[in-house]
Amino acid sequence: MSGILTQADIHWTELESVDSTNTWLLQAYSQRPLPGVQAVLARVQTGGRGRAGRSWLAQPDSALLLSLGFPVHTAQPMPHWPVCAGVGVAQALASVGITAQLKWPNDVLLLGGKLAGLLCETVSTVHGMQVIVGLGLNLTAAPAALPGGAWMPVALKSAWPADKAVPSARQLAERVVPAILSAIDAASSPAGWATLRALFRERDALLGQPLLVQDGGCTLLTGLGMGLADDGAYLLDTDAGLKSVVVGDLSIRRAA
Questions:
Q1: Where is the BPL/LPL catalytic domain (predicted)?
Q2: Domain span at 225
Q3: Does residue 227 share a domain with residue 141?
Q4: CB 148 within 8 A of CB 65
Q5: Model pLDDT for residues 70-82, shown as the tens digit of each residue
Q6: Beta-sheet pairing, 218-228 with 37-45
Q7: Residue 63 CA to chain centroid, in angstroms?
Q8: The 3-state secondary structure of 1-37, one letter per residue
Q9: 194: part of which helix (H) or strand (E)?
């Protein structure tokens, strides 16, 4: 990705209701060329998607429901995208006085609960490859906990000063979108990626924690969280040595 994109006009689309902002943008890219950076906001999502086919639920006007799309101009591996997006979201929150943590690969945590989830996808079109970064972030209310969820949902309002209004979805999006773009742009160079890894490490909720890796309810690995690998995968120190966990349908959970 070129730094020029971070300075380009961001093309905003605001939808009253949609099944999923990621799905909407995927379909839009498949139908026509879209210029520059696309930012799609929705007031209501009826079928929001999370990683591994999970749903993202939110009451109307209670969450930032955003998808950000842009062309790929780099050979970065897919594990880079959610790391960059997570760091960007955390930095945007820090700019309004909120300290968040990151749970690899795609969650933003606040006060020990899940504030936001990220879903990164790519779509190949006749105009080239596009990356779509989807974000669902609880603003004023947190949805009910999902069965088997390891992290209780939490809303930004929980950590917001009581005498101030919580930012609107558009207000927060105008901070989040440039921050994500800047993080992705920085990671396009080796030195920049090293900086992004260091920023992730400062916020890594799993670092040094006893963890287990599950897939379909089966435990595949246990060990201590050791942070990000060079390629964006997550490292575990196991009885069999250092193991790398890649993005997929795997889940990292705190060991009981």
A1: 1-188
A2: 210-254
A3: no
A4: no
A5: 987 665 556 688 9
A6: unpaired
A7: 14
A8: CCHHHHHCCEEEEEEEEECCHHHHHHHHHHHCCCCCE
A9: helix 190-202
Instruction: Tell which residue, 78, 4, 82, 75, has the closest CA to residue 36.
Output: 4
Pairing of strands 10-18, 37-45: parallel
pTM greater than 0.70 = yes
- Looking at the fold, whether 198 and 218 belong to one and the same domain comes out as no
How many structural domains are present in the chain? Answer: 2
- C-alpha 199/C-alpha 191 separation (Å) is 13
Specify the CATH number for the domain of residue 135: 3.30.930.10
pLDDT digits (tens, 9 = 90+) for 19-51: 999 999 999 998 888 988 999 999 998 865 555
Same domain, 181 and 229: no
What's the pLDDT tens digit per position in 157-182? 999 999 999 999 999 999 999 999 99
Query: CA-CA distances (angstroms) from residue 112 to 200, 206, 230?
Result: 17, 12, 27
Q: What is the DSSP letter of 49?
A: B
Residue 58: per-residue pLDDT = 61
- Count the helices and strands in the chain (H runs, E runs): 5, 12
- What's the pLDDT at 52? 47
CA dihedral sign of residues 76, 78, 83, 87: positive
Token pair of 103, please? 């749970």
- Closest to 189 (Cα-Cα) out of 110, 73, 26: 73
What pLDDT score does 142 carry? 87
User: pLDDT digit string (tens) for 169-217?
Assistant: 999 999 999 999 999 888 888 899 999 999 999 999 999 999 988 777 7
Whose CA is closest to 196, among 173, 209, 211, 180? 180
